[in-house]
Task: inverse folding
């Protein structure tokens, strides 16, 4: 029987809290996580992209969830080459600057190394509890297919080992023509889990919905199909609720994908109100059916 876990990319979003999805009794952070974990076996933590987690926080996540619950952790923005607010960087590693955003090259080499070390160390409580599914490395839209970027993917895996990683690419060049086969072959040769995505098409960041497993872990992230994908408002970008018919069409494809991997994680990232939670629950029911 394939090991399939379905969850969402948030359990604390303010629009989710306002939606009424949580019962009135789930009135603290601890109770909300416990309730979420009673409904789903998997969650993706996206807050770690904006600010690296504290080890004590990861320890609380591990302690407040049942055995078998799984956390996927989104890598801190600096580690994927995204613009990063100076205030998000560890205070003692933060360079003095007037820049609004920083990139890896803006930090001294040792400070950059220390960011990596501290970020990964903070995840140890989850790893020790057997609750760390993967660290999601979602690369920026300007991370194109080229030799140096392929080498960086290998560097990421090396830095994180033995912690598992998953790779989400967001530039069409990785899947243009013959590049698709090259990309998937490269990931497969190095046993790097490829993150399949469902998202709006026709944009620079658009990746086609290629469902394939390149390692023992397969990951699918559902971003929705908002017609405001380029908006700076994340609720406009991700405010899309999948119809039941859309999910019905996805179910057999996802079962087939799960048959080619040891573990499969499916994440609803359409995080507005309770859209993701409702869609995830429907998907679980569909996958449990014939």
Result:
């Amino acid at each position: 029987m394939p090991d399939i876990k379905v969850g969402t990319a948030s359990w604390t979003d303010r629009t989710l809290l306002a939606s009424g999805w949580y019962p009135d009794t789930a009135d603290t952070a601890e109770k909300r996580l416990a309730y979420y974990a009673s409904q789903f076996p998997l969650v993706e933590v996206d807050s770690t992209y904006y600010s690296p987690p504290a080890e004590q926080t990861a320890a609380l996540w591990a302690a407040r969830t049942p055995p078998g619950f799984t956390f996927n952790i989104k890598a801190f923005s600096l580690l994927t080459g995204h613009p990063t607010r100076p205030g998000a960087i560890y205070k003692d590693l933060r360079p003095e600057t007037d820049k609004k955003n920083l990139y890896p090259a803006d930090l001294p080499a040792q400070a950059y190394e220390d960011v990596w070390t501290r970020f990964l160390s903070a995840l140890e409580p989850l790893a020790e509890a057997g609750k760390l599914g993967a660290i999601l490395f979602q690369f920026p839209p300007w991370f194109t297919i080229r030799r140096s970027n392929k080498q960086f993917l290998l560097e990421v895996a090396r830095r994180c080992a033995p912690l598992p990683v998953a790779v989400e690419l967001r530039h069409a060049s990785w899947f243009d023509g013959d590049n698709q086969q090259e990309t998937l072959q490269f990931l497969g040769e190095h046993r790097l889990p490829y993150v399949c995505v469902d998202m709006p098409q026709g944009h620079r960041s658009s990746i086609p919905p290629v469902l394939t497993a390149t390692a023992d872990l397969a990951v699918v992230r559902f971003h929705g199909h908002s017609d405001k994908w380029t908006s700076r408002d994340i609720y406009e970008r991700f405010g899309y609720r999948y119809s039941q018919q859309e999910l019905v069409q996805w179910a057999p494809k996802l079962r087939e994908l799960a048959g080619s991997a040891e573990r499969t994680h499916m994440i609803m990232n359409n995080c507005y109100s309770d859209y993701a939670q409702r869609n995830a629950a429907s998907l679980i029911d569909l996958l449990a059916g014939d």
Remarks:
- The mean pLDDT is 95.
